[in-house]
Amino acid sequence: xxxxDAARVRQKVEQYARDPASLANNVKALQGEPYxxxxxxxxxxVMDDRGAVLDVVRIxxxxxxxx
Length: 67
Hints:
By secondary structure, the chain is α+β, with helices and mostly antiparallel strands.
């Protein structure tokens, strides 16, 4: 992942952690999994938001992250 994309993903995950409602249009529950996905450009961040700690499960490009 290019450094500028990594910084953008990190910033969006931190923004979500501070205020989940601010990214409501870019967050969606995944079917068949207990996770949510955050859309950041062409990157997808799969996270576990069930608890006191926001856990990033995986990060990958759009299309190949869901397999």
